[in-house]
Amino acid sequence: MNQRLVHLAVLMTFWVFSVARAGLPETIEKIRPSIVAIGTYQATRSQPLKVQGTGFIVMNGRYIATNYHVVSKEIKFAKEEYRVVLIGHGRNVKFYRLHEAALDRDHDLALYSFSGPKQPTMRIRQHGQVREGERYAFTGYPIAPILGLYPVTHRAIISAITPMVARSNNSNTLTAKQIIKLRSGSYQVYQLDAIAFPGNSGSPVYDPETGQVIAILNSVYVKGYRENALRHPSGISYAIPVRYLDALIAQVTSNLSK
């Protein structure tokens, strides 16, 4: 009898371990339709579509959350250049024009709407504390001009919860000197032990089991020059806690109800 119980316990342990390992692949499959690319479109360019970063679908399925620095580039409307969202992946991609809904430059966040069909939304974690050492994942479109529009997922742990302040001219890379200067700021961000690349900005950082978003990736530490983000990735990235996105969504929701 005892041997049978031991055998059952071993099988149960193996089953639980297998389910845990299967959690992230299942979650990726579920959230993939909600991960989008952000870019610009100009018909007269040699490459009409240019990808600038990542975003994800929120609210009623027609809004996109991303970083402010992803959409801060000036658009040449006089030359018929437009900011667009690219939905789909590989060669099965459609794009729609974006419209500014709300900006939070201080926390490097932006909300944009689009007029295309409603898309599946990502859930934002409303409760529960994020702790150092917890494992998360993020999905985005790094180096899209080279890799194409195929979403890429990275694992990460919360290495530290550290003070930081966003810059109005935010970029997706930070040097050591900039980090030291920015840490005199007034709000906390999550430091991740994950390699990120240009194009990952705006990627949702989410629970690998539930898919709930806990942060938005916004920068990566590079050693020396910005080009080293590709040549010698540091494995240190930063993400903005989702509570600041909650505030931005509440602002847009309030405006819509007026």
Low-confidence stretches: 5-21, 223-232
The structural domain count equals 2
Radius of gyration: 20 Å
Main sheet summary: 6 strands, antiparallel, barrel
What integer is the average pLDDT? 82
Please report the total strand number as a whole number: 13
Give the % helix: 10-25%
The topology string of helices and strands comes to HEEEEEEEHEEHEEEHEH
What distance separates the N and C termini? 68 Å
Label the CATH architecture of the largest domain: Beta Barrel
Trace the largest sheet across and list its strands: 1-2-3-6-5-4
Shape: globular
Counted by DSSP, the helix tally is 5
Question: Percent of residues in beta strands?
Answer: 35-45%
Q: Tell me, what is the CATH class of the largest domain?
A: Mainly Beta
- Helix/strand-derived category reads alpha+beta
Could you please describe the fold and organization of this structure?
The chain is an alpha+beta fold and 258 residues long. The chain folds into two domains: 33-114, Trypsin-like serine proteases (Thrombin, subunit H, Beta Barrel), CATH 2.40.10.10; 135-247, Beta Barrel (Thrombin, subunit H), CATH 2.40.10. The chain is built from five helices and 13 strands. It is globular, with a radius of gyration of 20 Å.
List keywords for this structure.
Thrombin, subunit H, 258 residues, 2 domains, alpha+beta, six-stranded antiparallel β-barrel
What is this structure's SSE topology?
Blueprint: H1 2-31, E1 35-42, E2 49-58, E3 63-66, E4 81-89, E5 92-104, E6 109-114, E7 135-140, H2 144-147, E8 152-164, E9 173-174, H3 176-182, E10 187-192, E11 204-206, E12 213-221, H4 228-231, E13 237-241, H5 242-257
Parallel strand pairs: 9-12
Antiparallel strand pairs: 1-2, 1-4, 2-3, 3-6, 4-5, 5-6, 7-8, 7-11, 8-10, 10-13, 11-12, 12-13
